[in-house]
């Protein structure tokens, strides 16, 4: 198995490590955290032993006990950590969004190619069998495709703290927070993978006192149809997401964590499309990234990179059109 280092000791990191164990794709060997105590607690919770711990990033990346790093730190830290990883010869799997700006993504993209390394943006849902089933249906019925409405809104566990006067990273422009750069990434990936690059992008956010978007409506305009998106971290939505094929409609229960899909015909008859869904939604992602590295599958890798480039461009276009400013915008 590929030796893995990780940055971040939160629930999503634990989920990724568990997915690696289940799929036998990566083997955890090294954990970086700001404190030894936090790293050791994370390791103990995973019931692992003989895992090295670092509290210094330079020491972490100069070690030779892993060759791929998984980065799950706050958004605003992704670029600096991924850049340091690539400069030290490590493949990078970085949680979405991989960067805060197109400039940052371009630097990482160029650096990965120069050093013949892999740079993966961890948009895990596009690798799941259930999403592949949606993609298959869209491809088979593309001549009838006439638009989509995609919704992904979940009340953040950090929003109560924000309302109480605190400033969690996810609501902080310094750390590239907000609905668009969190749940919005999923919906944009949906559109890019299924429909391609849009012609125009427009975003209307509800801006919080910290200067980031708590929720908003995003429109991607294509030559023959529009894709409308509702995203948010300050409220819950139970709307289905829909893809339109003239008289028929493909129904998804979510724009991000998709668990089932159905098809409605012109007579309102609804049938369930059989799909597979793993207990751990990161299984498919871990397996695919490991396969690409082991087989040096440059064709698939470049396809994923193309998606990531487009998604990061859309994110920046949407954000800047709405006047949302990140700390990373000032770092030239």
From TrEMBL:
Pfam families: GFO_IDH_MocA (PF01408). Residues 2-119 form the Gfo/Idh/MocA-like oxidoreductase N-terminal domain. GO terms for molecular function: nucleotide binding. This is Gfo/Idh/MocA family oxidoreductase. It comes from Companilactobacillus suantsaicola.
């Amino acid at each position: 198995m590929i030796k893995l280092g990780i940055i971040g000791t939160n629930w999503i990191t634990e989920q990724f490590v568990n997915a690696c164990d289940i799929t036998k794709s990566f083997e955890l060997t090294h954990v970086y955290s700001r404190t030894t105590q936090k790293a050791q607690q994370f390791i103990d919770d995973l019931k692992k032993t003989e895992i090295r711990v670092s509290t210094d990033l330079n020491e972490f990346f100069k070690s030779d006990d892993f060759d791929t790093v998984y980065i799950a730190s706050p958004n605003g830290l992704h670029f600096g950590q991924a850049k340091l990883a690539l400069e030290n010869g490590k493949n990078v799997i970085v949680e979405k969004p991989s960067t805060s700006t197109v400039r940052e993504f371009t630097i990482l993209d160029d650096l990965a190619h120069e050093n013949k390394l892999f740079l993966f943006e961890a948009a895990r849902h596009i690798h799941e069998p259930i999403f592949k089933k949606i993609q298959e249906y869209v491809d088979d019925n593309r001549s009838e495709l006439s638009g989509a409405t995609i919704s992904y809104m979940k009340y953040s566990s950090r929003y109560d703290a924000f309302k109480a006067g605190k400033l969690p990273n996810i609501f902080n422009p310094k750390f590239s927070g907000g609905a668009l750069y969190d749940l919005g990434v999923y919906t944009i990936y949906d559109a890019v993978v299924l429909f391609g690059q849009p012609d125009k992008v427009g975003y209307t956010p509800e801006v919080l006192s910290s200067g980031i978007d708590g929720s908003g409506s995003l429109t991607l305009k294509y030559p023959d149809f529009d894709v409308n998106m509702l995203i948010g971290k300050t409220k819950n939505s139970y709307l289905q997401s829909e893809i339109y094929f003239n008289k028929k409609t493909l129904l998804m229960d979510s724009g991000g964590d998709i668990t089932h899909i159905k098809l409605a015909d012109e007579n309102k008859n609804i049938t369930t499309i059989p799909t597979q869904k793993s207990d751990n939604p990161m299984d498919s992602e871990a397996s695919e990234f490991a396969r690409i590295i082991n087989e040096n599958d440059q064709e698939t890798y470049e396809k994923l990179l193309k998606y990531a480039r487009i998604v990061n461009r859309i994110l920046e276009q949407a954000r800047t059109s709405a006047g949302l400013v990140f700390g990373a915008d000032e770092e030239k």
